User: What shape does this take?
Amino acid sequence: MCKKCSGFTLMEAVFALALLLAVTTVLLPLFTQMVMERQNIALKAKAQQLLSVALHEEHMKPEATVVDGRTTFVLHSYYEENDMWKVCVRWNDYAGRNVERCGYGKR
Assistant: This one.
């Protein structure tokens, strides 16, 4: 064998690959959670947009359904006391949680 060869030994290469595998194992679930939360934020923005449109609509049904891709938004609207108009949007996010946002308006 040559004494002045520069390069990695087999043990150094195995150690580097094991370290890379450990870091990847730790970071991959975090990355997938970040992607899922980003998608949930987009769903929340879409629900807020639907809520805003529903609050400004004059003749809205008491219950309406809007399908956007894989997500189904259900809008409920009704009058409360003091002539307040309440509209709620419900949907299931990508983590499987039931989410609801409500808004009020004066009619």
